[in-house]
């Protein structure tokens, strides 16, 4: 075999090839020069066909249509239809009724019907029906039933013959106990509004319940505002009844440290002293006062027994309220405990019966069908008991409570721990 060592002559008609590769495309012609000496690229052909896709390559995805959904712009709306949240008028009626002001509660709630006409808010109507039932006002009940048919286009509640009659008080509605719930997140602005209400209510001679149970955060300015208002009402001889003091004491205790002299923590110390004193725990107060005095190098505050709330003796009219009977297990359902009457002044015996019954059940049902009223003190005890049972893994349900009792339980936050509803 003979190999040629000479270069192939040009113009032999055969294109040059590269081993293992495709034939190269011819080089594009250089752009034509223009008059100013610069070069300008040649424009692409207007009707040039697109380059063919490489063999075996996946086709390009189609462009999304203009009507496609943008998932980042979609939102989920959750509607609360449980009725767990009371409006302002319902809260006022619940508070009045809990304090024995049944007639005042009915008058207050009746005045809101026109404003909520067309809203089909069942809670307001159910409360007013129950108030007329408790007051034994059959004519008002029947009149409300006619309005109910127009509003809801359905059958109204029926009058219960021989039902319990609530005790009424001759005191005017203005003399009923006031209720002020502190916000969960306390700052200078929202606390100032509640303190103004506290001072105004106390100066009018109305006893006040200050609810601290739902507070989860408090800043130094809010502590100072509340302390100032609290001390102001004490100067005029008013004593504030505290609900949820343990929660506030725990919250404030976490914000201070004995021996750490921080001016911003002083309002926490002083509010903690005031709250501890209001609970009547003198030993805890005096120990805290010594820690405060050592930390800030001042004289320790003195105990003032007049700042401790003392419940007034019940009036004679209150004797008309159906007294709470001893809870009894249902004869039909072994997991159901039946309660009845008005649960007042802590209802210690009933709370213990619930505790004992719940210790034998994993899902106890508390039948409130015949419970006529629950006051603030008892609701507070029920809240503590509910927390205790939840921590033990007991699933509690409160069944068949009337609208006013259910409203009170929800107002105190018990509905956040146990189920309220059903029969």
Characterization of this structure:
With 423 residues, this protein is an alpha/beta fold. It has three domains: 88-152; 173-307, Transcription Regulator spoIIAA; 322-420, STAS domain (Transcription Regulator spoIIAA). Helices cover 36% and strands 9% of the residues. The chain contains twelve helices and ten strands. The strands form three sheets. Strands 6-7-8-9-10 form a five-stranded mixed β-sheet. Strand 9 (397-399), helix 12 and strand 10 form a beta-alpha-beta unit. Helix 7 (245-253) packs antiparallel against helix 8 (266-278) and helix 10 packs parallel to helix 11. The longest helix is centred in the middle third of the chain and has 16 residues, at 188-203. It is globular, with a radius of gyration of 38 Å. The protein starts with 87 loop residues before the first helix and ends with a strand. Mean pLDDT is 78; it is low at 1-58, 61-83, 167-177 and 313-320. This is ABC-type transporter Mla MlaB component. It comes from Silvimonas terrae.
